[in-house]
Design a protein that fits this description.
This protein has one domain: Rossmann fold (3-Layer(aba) Sandwich), CATH 3.40.50.300. The strands form two sheets. A six-stranded mixed β-sheet has the order 6-7-8-3-9-10, sandwiched between helices. Strands 2-1-4-5 form a four-stranded antiparallel β-sheet, covered by helices on one side. It is an alpha/beta fold. Adenosine-5'-triphosphate binds next to strand 2 and helix 1.
Length: about 260
């Protein structure tokens, strides 16, 4: 479960560069809920994920994970409960280490242990089994360097790595945006599969309006640090990409031709 309660995030407070990235955002995700977040450039999407992960400290408001107030808990401590995957396929893993070493490190995330014990045979077998089960076709390449994989394979493994530790919260920051359409669909299918298998609570930021409407069970739209739209159920099922664009046009009072949001 994730709850952000009226959080305000201000960068460079008190300077000419002051910027209020979140202006009182409240959002609650129940355990196992999968929510897609869409919003124009600079809307505050990454800041919201950062506030949940503990990278960004809100100037007011609270962040709760599994009903515990973690507002002042460090990102390192929250890593036990929160996994993240970023846009850059290179961001979540180490190219010089083998695939197995990366996976073992991920499995011990948030426990503050050395990865060497994590490479025990039993742990490796369970990791291999997970890779096989997900049909990633990488189980015979576990000794190869992570850097030898394609961007799509590496992002698929980043996602698997995010689900190896016993965390139940997954934060996805445009994790398919840097992939070609075929790999993006593959990674998105894997995301749905892993979320369902492990009953993960997922907050997925995307610039694709289609993904925002057809992934997960709820769509939240952020605009200039505020939630503009929060839809689920029949209301969401009836929404089209054009409806989403209309909402943005109403909010911005202009066309969105130049915005990356226009990704179909
Ligand atoms: N570390 C920072 N220091 C100063 N300003 C920041 C910082 N991080 C974000 N901002 C500003 O806060 C606002 C929200 O940024 P954020 O990255 O959360 O938006 P976003 O919705 O993720 O945008 P995009 O889709 O372009 O990635 C922007 O105006 C951004 O410039």
């Amino acid at each position: 479960m994730i709850e952000v309660d009226n959080i305000v995030v201000t960068f460079n407070a008190g300077t000419p560069l002051e910027r209020q990235a979140l202006r009182g955002v409240s959002l609650r995700l129940e355990e196992g809920e999968f929510v897609s977040v869409i919003g124009s450039n600079g809307a505050g999407k990454s800041t919201l994920l950062g506030a949940i992960a503990g990278d960004v400290l809100p100037s007011s408001g609270r962040v709760l994970l599994s009903d515990a107030d973690v507002t002042r808990v460090s990102a390192q401590k929250r890593a036990r409960y929160v996994a993240r995957v970023f846009q850059d396929p290179l961001a979540g893993s180490c190219g010089n280490l083998s695939i197995a070493e990366n996976l073992a490190l991920a499995a011990s995330r948030g426990r503050g242990r050395s990865f060497l014990p994590a490479l025990r045979h039993s742990r490796l077998s369970s990791i291999r089994a997970r890779i096989e089960e997900l049909n990633l076709k990488l189980e015979d390449r576990l000794d190869q360097p992570m850097g030898s994989l394609s961007g799509g394979q590496r992002q698929a493994l980043s996602l698997v790595m995010a689900t190896l530790a016993p965390s139940s919260i997954l934060l996805l920051d445009e994790h398919t945006a840097a992939l070609d359409p075929r790999n993006a669909e593959f990674v998105l299918d894997l995301t749905r599969d892993l979320a369902a298998r492990f009953n993960l609570t997922v907050l997925m930021v995307t610039h694709s309006m289609r993904h925002a409407l057809d992934t997960g069970s709820r769509t939240v739209m952020l605009h200039e640090g505020r939630i503009l739209l929060d839809v689920t159920g029949e209301k969401r099922a009836g929404l089209t990409i054009e409806d989403l664009l209309d909402e943005f046009r109403k909010a911005r009072g202009e066309e969105l031709a130049e915005d990356r949001l226009l990704t179909a």
